[in-house]
């Protein structure tokens, strides 16, 4: 019989296989200094485009003070135990109430993490006869939640309404045949790789034709989209028709935790049936108080949202003027599509970091098809005009080098940290 570890350690997986050259540089890099648009990477100053600190809250002095005061008062332990048993507090309930109001729902339930929360919501909502219809480009937390689902699931091509209807017809037919079960549709408010919004308006309009409930992961839209920051549903004028609204605190709130919001009865159902919360310690008080403060700022400082959008517009217009392909983003998430191999992409990223002081993330094969490179730029409210201008210049110069074949290398440059 084979030894399990021996088998795994033969290649370390599709990304792990590069670790000896990449660790600490292309993978697991360490950004140091105050979180913001300028940080240090391996001792060098860099302009950072990799953080979802959309509203620039991570280092806001009022937030730093609130976090520090709350940690000093409560430590990181209080309250102990799961919410249901002994880990509840008035502040946890207050945060739920304020979140629900912010996203225009009756009630909300706190989750310790977005990823775990989503996996567990899917588990709590669906059983054997239910059918889940979902977008092909949904985030890993949704895909992994589907793995727990014992019933059928039908995927539709990303944002493709024709295919969505086809899958809805299959799902409806199956449920009629089974004489049991119901349909849950799961999509995102903003797709984090390409930056396009989910077609929520069109999908909820189809409630007239098909019977289903919809769960929307709006991790990127929460706090950034819509008149009040209530997200993609608000931006598209259909927030009310979203049955379950989900977001993490890891992006515009620059914190930890997540929530799901909807009608009081279904949120109460989730509260009493979601295993990731029932069998886990509740969010520490310092996070709850820190998140209350962040939410207050989301409500009261619309100028942060305006700054984010001004920066996103300047960056995206600048890229388009210089002939870059940024796909069909209609949000601040800014992908830059180029052609090249994994080795070329890493050489180009190295040039950007070492010689231009630009730190951005790349997405390459096997996450996307071979021969394609996506640079993912995340503008935030804390970027400056100078950051954007320097970045546009650097992108123009390095793209010329890429096209001229200057980054053609045999192997991924060896940039690993000594371990
Ligand atoms: C769309 C989406 N959903 C869920 C998550 C997971 O949230 P968390 O980091 O709170 O686990 C992320 C990433 O943070 C995300 O981008």
Give the SSE map:
Elements: H1 4-8, H2 13-16, H3 19-22, E1 31-32, E2 38-41, E3 44-48, H4 61-74, H5 90-102, E4 107-111, H6 114-125, E5 131-135, H7 140-147, E6 153-156, H8 161-178, E7 183-188, H9 200-205, E8 213-217, H10 232-235, E9 244-248, E10 258-262, H11 264-273, H12 275-278, H13 285-300, H14 302-321, E11 334-339, H15 342-355, E12 358-359, E13 361-363, E14 372-377, H16 385-403
Parallel strand pairs: 3-12, 5-6, 5-7, 7-8, 8-9
Antiparallel strand pairs: 1-2, 2-3, 4-10, 9-10, 11-14, 13-14
The structure holds pyridoxal-5'-phosphate (PLP).
Pyridoxal-5'-phosphate binds next to α6.
Structure overview:
With 419 residues, the protein is α/β, with parallel strands linked by helices. Helix content is 41%, strand content 15%. It has a 7-stranded mixed β-sheet with strand order 4-10-9-8-7-5-6, with helices on both faces. The chain has a 4-stranded mixed β-sheet with strand order 1-2-3-12. Strands 11-14-13 form a 3-stranded antiparallel β-sheet, covered by helices on one side. Helix 6 packs parallel to helix 7 and helix 15 packs across helix 16. The chain is globular. It binds pyridoxal-5'-phosphate. Pyridoxal-5'-phosphate (PLP) binds next to helix 6. Pyridoxal-5'-phosphate binds next to helix 6.
Distance between the termini: 32 Å
The DSSP helix count reads 16
Tally of strands: 14
Percentage of residues in helical conformation: 40-55%
The arrangement of helices and strands along the chain is: HHHEEEHHEHEHEHEHEHEEHHHHEHEEEH
**Class based on secondary structure composition and strand pairing:** alpha/beta
Query: Shape, please?
Result: globular
Overall radius of gyration:
22 Å
The chain-level mean pLDDT equals 96
- Indicate the multimeric state: single chain
Strand order of the largest sheet: 4-10-9-8-7-5-6
Spans of 5+ residues with little confidence (pLDDT < 50)? none
